Amino acid sequence: MNDRQHPPANGSAGGLLAAGGLFLDVVFAGLPGVPRLGEEQWTSDFGWGPGGIANFAIAASRLGCPTAIAAAVGHDPLSDLARSVLAVEHIDTTALRPVPGWQLPVTAGLGWERDRALVTGGVPAPVPLPDVLAGVDFPAVATVHVEPGLGQWISRAAAAGTKVFADLGWDATGAWDTAVLDDLAGCHAFLPNDLEAMAYTRTETARDAVHALADRVPLSVVTLGGRGVLAVDSSTGEEVVAPPVVVPVRDTTGAGDVFGAALATATLTGWSLRERVDLAALVAAICVSRPGGAAGAPRADELVPWLDAHPDADGGRFGFLRDALAGDPSRLPLPGAGAPTGSPADVRPGSTSDRPLTTPTPR
């Protein structure tokens, strides 16, 4: 197999495909403040692991969803490390595209005062995502980093029945060109935060923004950080205003990605929009209460025990989840979810959280 061809990734055919930019994340949370020049700070809240689009893949796989990842990787040791960690997480890695001479970028996340700053070293992948996706099977659900040229793949995926969940990301230029929203054509859902949503739609409130975006995609979801979630399903008329799951925040790195992965996975369950949003809010809340970004995303079998340990977070809101996990707590009730698709390896993401990260039990 040469560098321009790879076999289809079949692990996501009935589950989720995460496609986009891959990074190696090194996360430092719980800092007392902004590091000053000439100063060294120590923190015990530290974690590392694959980031970027891998946040979606890891979170979905831990909920029991058959998951594959499509992204460019290098021939460098960091790429090998990321691939090994993804395999431990039971993620199909056959659609990772090796790029000669390119090194996987590294992102350092620095967290303090309930938020974080990011610094990335490296250069973007020299291979466009449509080339990475060539020959990859269409899944039931896809989470993608939307970029120019991806529209044809999105249209073909939608025609094949795939529900595409789109992520546009932060516009570092500050232009917030509304033409970018045209790239959402064919997508099932768009999941920006409130600042992104208001900037792209030129609206003054998150509520106005979520309704404006509902004119472009069937499912418009705007996350509000510690204030909850707004969601509108324009195909059914459902509208959800979900309160936050209140937790002590330790690290917000990757929280939006973990929320998106959980929501996309829950789409396969047949639950109501309210239940899907509540599940995603719970998963993201547990994640931000731990250091390490997506490395802190919970497994399905952790959800009910976490609710039992935090009764104030439940309030009867998650009875549907308790019922769904009563038979098999290791996975959400997903149709056709079978054995893991990845090959376990003796490498796993690291974290100094009070919850040790361990290799997932076979599903």
Automatic annotation (TrEMBL):
<feature type="domain" description="Carbohydrate kinase PfkB">
    <location>
        <begin position="45"/>
        <end position="298"/>
    </location>
</feature>
<dbReference type="InterPro" id="IPR011611">
    <property type="entry name" value="PfkB_dom"/>
</dbReference>
<dbReference type="InterPro" id="IPR002173">
    <property type="entry name" value="Carboh/pur_kinase_PfkB_CS"/>
</dbReference>
<keyword id="KW-0808">Transferase</keyword>
<dbReference type="InterPro" id="IPR029056">
    <property type="entry name" value="Ribokinase-like"/>
</dbReference>
<feature type="compositionally biased region" description="Polar residues">
    <location>
        <begin position="350"/>
        <end position="363"/>
    </location>
</feature>
<feature type="region of interest" description="Disordered">
    <location>
        <begin position="329"/>
        <end position="363"/>
    </location>
</feature>
<keyword id="KW-0418">Kinase</keyword>
<dbReference type="Pfam" id="PF00294">
    <property type="entry name" value="PfkB"/>
</dbReference>
<dbReference type="GO" id="GO:0016301">
    <property type="term" value="F:kinase activity"/>
</dbReference>
<protein>
    <submittedName>
        <fullName>Carbohydrate kinase family protein</fullName>
    </submittedName>
</protein>
